[in-house]
Amino acid sequence: MQSIPVDTARLGVLRCANVPEVKFSNPETQEVKKDKDGNPVYTVAVTVRPDGRRISVIEIAVSGEPKGIEPGQIVKVVGLTAFVWTMGDRNGVSFRADAITPAPASAAHTKGGDA
Question: What are the start-end ranges of the E strands in 1-115?
Fold first, then answer.
């Protein structure tokens, strides 16, 4: 799987779209996906709006439950990486981050409600 570092500054305003959700490795048995250190993996949907373009939503996986973020809040995404994948005749891009935290108040005020 090819990993591509993502420059979050080029994505415009990043805004939490939903509450963090635990990711399941097996949805039928409700087995929670764990990272290599045994921490649960969560998924956060984040809206991005690069250069005033149309808003897109990306789902970002992160180890451990992100604290202090809620829908509509501007967030800071640290260490975002995209992974290109192929599975049979399907392919896509998935995203992973080191952390997702509330944006500092000054960043939220400066960027306003663009997204």
Answer: 2-5, 15-16, 21-22, 24-26, 31-32, 41-48, 56-63, 75-78, 81-87, 90-97, 99-102
